[in-house]
Design brief:
Strand order of the largest sheet: 3-4-2-1-5
Oligomer: single chain
Largest sheet: 5 strands, mixed
Number of strands: 5
Order of helices and strands: EEHEEHE
Helix content: 10-25%
Radius of gyration: 20 Å
Amino acid sequence: MTDRNSRTVYSTGTGSTCTKCGWPERDCKCSCQFTREQPLPSRIIAKLRMEKKGRGGKTMTVVYDLPQNAAFLKELADELKRACGTGGAVVDGGVEIQGDLRDRVRAVLVKKGWTVKG
């Protein structure tokens, strides 16, 4: 038996959800964030910064503003981790390397022929 006068008063619905993880698409936690892969441009400009905030005082070298291409970012992260001899991760639109290694990362990226800022 349904009530014809009932209506939704409040809903926590946030629109479309990710088919893999069930989170809202804007907050997707799985790897489907890279479904819209960008083609690689002929000239890549990488930006460097060092971050400490929110990491318990530990420093991270961040390479950001890179093309949104999962294979490209994974390959770059692996190459930078090998060159620096440290750990790291692929994050949304960039690569994080553990430690303040901006000079080493800059050298690797310049050797690849990229323009490096920061």
